[in-house]
Amino acid sequence: MFNKIWKHKEQSNFSIEYTKENILQQPVPEHVAIIMDGNGRWAKKRALPRAAGHYEGMQVVRKITRFANELGIKVLTLYAFSTENWKRPKSEVDYLMKLPEQFLTTFLPELIEENVTVRVIGDCNQLPEHTQTAVKKAVEDTKHNTGLILNFALNYGSRAEITHAVKEIAKQVQQGHLSAEQIDEEVVASYLMTRNLKDPDLLIRTSGEIRLSNFMLWQLAYTEFWFTDVLWPDFTEQHLLEAIAEFQKRGRRFGGI
Ligand code: FPP
């Protein structure tokens, strides 16, 4: 046992071994959002094609979803494909577009068994037909589940989301259903794709990049951020516990004192 913990520390630089039991003694974040970054570098380090990193990343999505559900986290939002990711080579985009289908086809029965609800934010209309079909089926088949909400951000960009919301609100004003004075933060939030979700409590970004990359800019206003150098395919349950332990130490004041 000692040996196992020591080895683990050596590999990932932890000074403390967190356990689920410790973490559950204090409130866990209700909504965790993750920018899953570093798949390409993980593959490169192993002289593998980038697709191998994305494939491994998909396995980690399954592992972390299961664990988040066990911890009682209510919403897990995962940035799987951004509006900017279309700029990648076609072969990589094609592969990334196959992953939701592959993930959902492989794991949907387990997700249903674990009472997980699948949801999506982002412009799904621009996704290939086969991706849309898989996503729609998963959303439909899990819509009555009451456990963790697994919320994929697919073809998601925060500026596009806010721009769309502004246009919709402008139309309401133009048609006389809403006055400019009535537009408050609640109204704006109600036109975002996250309208039925509470804002994230904790944002995790892997791979050492310290930026938001057009992710949930409105929703992250008061979120606690946790960055790690760990590449997404190397991300483990222990890293999630570490992020939550750090979250539990932070004093959230939401602008108050
Ligand atoms: C960023 O790493 C990662 C992505 C753009 C894709 C994320 C997708 C997954 C983790 C798998 C998705 C799984 C499902 C179920 C949809 P990068 O490629 O930018 O890595 P790099 O910065 O090291 O090149």
UniProtKB/TrEMBL annotation:
EC number: 2.5.1.-
GO molecular function: transferase activity
InterPro entries: UPP_synth-like, UPP_synth-like_CS, UPP_synth-like_sf
Cofactor: Mg(2+)
A Pfam family assignment: Prenyltransf
Enzyme kind, highest EC tier: transferase
Residues forming the catalytic site: 37, 85
Family: Belongs to the UPP synthase family.
Protein known as: Isoprenyl transferase
Provenance organism: Anoxybacteroides rupiense
Source organism phylogeny: Bacteria, Bacillati, Bacillota, Bacilli, Bacillales
